[in-house]
Amino acid sequence: MLRTAKSIAIVGASANAARASYFVATYLLSSSPYEVYFVNPRVDEILGHKVYASLADLPVVPDIVDVFRKNADLPGVAREAVAVGAKVLWLQLGSWNEEAAAIAEAGGLQVVMDRCVKIEHARFHGGLHLAGFDTGVISSKRQVTAR
């Protein structure tokens, strides 16, 4: 999915640098080839990019809809993703919703739950520390340093 996707819409994107969606957005904009779109009806701009009120307002059909919303909102986001013709519904770490998955799958979307786009992308494109930070080292062994 990540190899063939051209665009990602982050639903529930936040302008707050302490939020996970902001961290993921920063990574995607600086370290990935994707066109990144932000969806949040309460924000006008994030990281210098326009924010859209809904998936239907985007200028493109996103390949991946990456969702940072509370569990109760996930079925509605799944319906929106189906309605716009997205290819993948991606629920971030800690998000698992069978109803949303069933809606998306019935609409022809692939579904990923409880995974982080940033972490999964970084796993395929360089060293990744357990905490999700790029160490610059690709190895399964701990680096030995002189004391």
Give the helices and strands, then pairings.
Blueprint: E1 7-11, H1 20-31, E2 35-39, E3 45-46, E4 49-52, E5 64-67, H2 74-84, E6 88-91, H3 98-106, E7 110-112, H4 117-124
Parallel strand pairs: 1-2, 1-5, 2-4, 5-6, 6-7
Antiparallel strand pairs: 3-4
Helix pairs in contact: 2-3
How would you describe this structure to a colleague?
- The chain is an alpha/beta fold.
- The protein contains four helices and seven strands; from the N terminus they run E-H-E-E-E-E-H-E-H-E-H.
- It has helices at 20-31, 74-84, 98-106, 117-124, and strands spanning 7-11, 35-39, 45-46, 49-52, 64-67, 88-91, 110-112.
- Strands 3-4-2-1-5-6-7 form a seven-stranded mixed sheet, with helices on both faces.
- Strand 1, helix 1 (20-31) and strand 2 (35-39) form a beta-alpha-beta unit.
- Helix 2 packs parallel to helix 3 (98-106).
- The mean pLDDT is 89.
SSE series: EHEEEEHEHEH
Distance between the termini: 44 Å
Average predicted local confidence, pLDDT: 89
Q: Number of helical segments?
A: 4
**What does the overall shape look like?**
globular
Low-confidence stretches: none
- Compute the CA-based radius of gyration: 16 Å
Largest sheet strand order: 3-4-2-1-5-6-7
* DSSP, total strands: 7
Largest sheet: 7 strands, mixed
Beta-strand portion reads 15-25%
The helix/strand class is alpha/beta
Helix content: 25-40%
